């Protein structure tokens, strides 16, 4: 009788272990705290956040000399690079007293001249920059102000 009792206890234990290991709701018998379980919950039910977009600024600049010579630079990585490049171009074209008239980043810049006067502007779009540069030239006393130079230096996505 004692052996039947022991046998029954052993069979109950084995059947309990077997049912805990593999059930229709728990394939593989893993607990939901086990990373191997298809029902594993680490406590974070949200999907991972997508990587943040990163953008790099781009700079542009215009330089001019009293002789009417201009120099321009676009898509430079820093203000200093843009201004240095614009000054160098102005000097290469024969400007003796070149100076930076306009620096801008992540937008457009324009220079208009006429009647011995000039106007410069920066704006989010080409059209706005050009219109404002011509108006600035006219307000400075320029006649028949025309677009001389226009460029955009827009941010660049780096990831």
Automatic annotation (TrEMBL):
Top-level taxon: Bacteria
Leader peptide range in chain numbering: 1-20
The DUF4189 domain, residue ranges: 59-150
InterPro entries in alphabetical order: DUF4189
Region (Disordered): 22-50
Any single Pfam family the record assigns to this protein: DUF4189
Keywords of this entry: Signal
Protein name as catalogued: DUF4189 domain-containing protein
Lineage, uppermost ranks: Bacteria, Pseudomonadati, Pseudomonadota, Gammaproteobacteria, Lysobacterales
